[in-house]
Prior knowledge:
Elements: H1 2-13, H2 15-26, E1 37-38, E2 46-47, E3 52-53, H3 55-68, E4 72-77, E5 83-87, H4 88-104, E6 112-116, H5 121-133, E7 136-139, H6 146-156, E8 160-164, E9 166-169, E10 172-175, H7 177-185, E11 194-198, E12 212-214, H8 215-220, E13 231-232, E14 238-242, E15 250-254, H9 257-270, E16 278-281, H10 288-300, E17 304-308, H11 319-327, E18 331-334, H12 336-348, E19 364-368, H13 374-384, E20 391-394, E21 428-431, E22 444-448, E23 458-459, H14 463-470, E24 480-488, E25 495-500, E26 504-507, E27 510-513, H15 514-522, E28 527-537, E29 541-550, H16 557-574, E30 583-586, H17 600-608, H18 624-630
Amino acid sequence: MHAYQDLVAQAVRDYEGFWANLAATTLDWSKPFTKVLDETEAPFYKWFEDGELNASYNCIDRHVEAGNGSRRAIVFEADDGKVSYVTYADLLNGVSRFANALKRRGVGKGDRVVIYMSMSVQGVVAMQACARIGATHSVVFGGFSSKALNERLVDVGATALVTADEQVRGGKTLPLKSIADEALALGGCEAVKSVIVYQRTGGEVAWKEGRDFWMHELTQTESDQCPPEPVGAEHPLFILYTSGSTGKPKGVQHSTGGYLLWAAQTLKWTFDWKQNDVFWCTADIGWITGHSYITYGPLALGGTQVVFEGVPTFPNAGRFWDMIARHRVSLFYTAPTAIRSLIKASEVDSKSHPKQFDLTSLRILGTVGEPINPEAWVWYHENVGGGRCPVVDTWWQTETGGHMITPLPGATPLVPGSCTLPLPGIMAAVVDETGQDVPNGQGGILVIKRPWPSMLRNIWGDPDRYRSSYFPEELGGKLYLAGDGAVRDNGTGYFTIMGRIDDVLNVSGHRLGTMEIESALVAHPLVAEAAVVGRPDDTTGEAVCAFVTLKRELPVGEDATQLASELRTWVGKQIGPIAKPKDIRFGDNLPKTRSGKIMRRLLRSLAKGEEITQDVSTLENPTILEQLGESR
Ligand code: PRX
């Protein structure tokens, strides 16, 4: 704790010096920076702006040049259990060839490449290859629908798309290329000149000559030499779409220098990363966790990591524990949802209980993505970590690039359910609606008071939305608004996250905007109006609950069940299966004020099954509450 406090004090004393020192020692710069933080166009901050570097060089070449080419970079385990090993030399070869193939297809510095793939070495290679030539990647999670993919292709102005024929998860094959074809056919993305396809299963796919290319055919004939393109530290390394409270998803734009610095540095601090560790982050490369703690952080450190194609419950719910034992994983990072579902599964099937496996290789356990309930924390600590391994509950976001508030293992005394203290250099605070600090013990709005190197730089193509979403005038225009509520403990000053304060839901650690789901529902020909709220769920943290009015008579019985199922499938097609509402309730109307505003807090109470004790005198139609409360 003294070492931690020293670092915190250093950052307070000399903020720029603190960050400059980390950036100079953690990364290799082809042109060293002389400037640290530029605030002249705040909140459009710039870090290390005159420095140049290449992310792929930092993640691959420098380890090979240091004589570590034969070190294992990736232990890949396929859905069916087949294991393959990739060294840093292999990565250099594969990434260079693919980077050359991209260049031959006309992709260059600043161009945007969308990557729509499942978990694979090739997915990581594609991201690294973009970074190598200075192209900006935008990974779209393989579970998103053709419509969602189309919107992202259009918004980001992609010129190339990398995908796979099919993905394999839980013993099933699921299409990717055909969804990509549908997305392209929806139009607006005519700038996409090349579709490069990784052949995962050999399943049948439609083919458009001159546009579609097999990844293995393109790379076969390319040279394995591709000098990394130096880019300015502020060059956009990637754009990753995430849900906000209003409108369409936001393209969160990250930098190269500041982002990479924090991806690597946080892994060192939060997981006490050491050279002989085997790290395993179970996230998908389609989310920020997969970017920072699969593609960039572990590779920047020259570490060894496990990459897994499948799901935790196939062939049985012991899969994670079996893999930890077989690969001697020492640092394990997963989501509370996964833990909760594996707790349940182990109660039903004792053979899948972690106690049945040799988990002695584990050193540190981590969680991310949503609040972890103390019961799940304790189970994880006891049964997976054998009571020996610190659990780091890491709070951060797509926008923050890396960990922000988290215990440091072995240093910070742990409290289940609390992400404890901000990392050194991260000026986190809890404020009221006017931006004033609130005393410890009192809940408020979580903000970050100073810019930090790995923060988002913009919302792609929408600087006004960047400013209004993250630096709202109500808070004075200078504080970064995280969108979460939090409270600090009176004694320890520890932070506890209390969930989103906006209309964003967190289902199984996936971020979903209620408006996105509402728009999807009202696009259905039978739906007149829809309001979506979250309700607590034992496994997924939050569940999507939709209140729907129809353009026809109110359905009852079997009719209602069928229609609800049709609407779920519809939302799955519009956004992706993760957005399907768990509950759908039909009503003749929605609870509204006389001015026509939907009273969401009442819907939230109804969704939870609570009795309405709040004042409903401003409601135009109070009887609707009874109807919506009954229909399930
Ligand atoms: O509400 C917080 C929750 O997840 C949100 C960020 O979601 P996303 O951008 O998808 O990134 C997830 C992976 C970093 C936050 O605003 N969240 C994330 N980590 C935690 C958390 N809530 C509580 N505790 C956490 N450790």
